[in-house]
Amino acid sequence: MIIIYHCSGGTHSSVLAAHIHLGLLPLDRVPTAKEIIEKTNFDTSTKKDWGLIKSVGIDDHGSLICTMGRRFSTNIVIQALNSLNRQLGMKEDLQLINIHTDVNLLMKIGGLVSRGFNMVFIGRPIVMKGSLKAYYNIVEVVKNVKQRIYNE
After folding, report:
1. What is the pLDDT of residues 8-62, one digit of tens each?
2. Are 54 and 42 in contact (CB under 8 A)?
3. DSSP 25-52
4. CA 107 – CA 94 distance, rounded (Å)
5. Residue 5: which residues within 8 A CB-CB, separation 6 or more?
6. What SS3 class is residue 60?
7. Where are the domains of the chain?
8. Cα distance between residue 152 and residue 100, in whole Å
9. How far, CA to CA in Å, does 84 sit from each of 60, 80, 102, 126?
């Protein structure tokens, strides 16, 4: 199975979700900003990364966990990936998880400033504050995905 966590930029909420899914970030507490920066590729994607599927790791069930930034073309990208999966006759089940629904205003503003305007020194603290605030919501999304897919 291939599980792709996707969001607008592919660099904040989807990165957190993928790392939570793999157990690289905790379920039971909000990590520190330092832990997130050291353990993930948080806030590193650029415009040239949009549409790229990035492998993060393999989970305990042997599923490939990935992230993707798809800007605001959610339906088109999902339809294209599902269509490609069918046309190639892939045996792997493809799960596309929209994590953008759990993005708050601080994440949007900070992400725009950091990645959109390339002002990381201003934007990253803002997007990090929003991410820490939204962390448990992202944990719940990951738990629900695992429950639905693996009956965990």
Report:
1. 899 999 999 999 999 999 999 999 999 999 999 999 998 899 888 999 999 999 9
2. no
3. S-SSSPPPHHHHHHHS-TT---GGGTT-
4. 27
5. 13, 14, 17, 18, 21, 65, 66, 67, 68, 97, 99
6. coil
7. 2-101+136-150
8. 23
9. 26, 6, 27, 37
| Residue of 19, 8, 85 whose CA lies nearest to 51 | 8
Give the span between the Cα atoms of 90 and 64, in whole angstroms.
Answer: 14
* Residue 118 neighbours by CB under 8 Å, 6+ apart: none
pTM of the entire predicted model: 0.91
Residue 15: what residue type? V
DSSP-derived pairing of the beta strands 2-7 and 53-58: unpaired
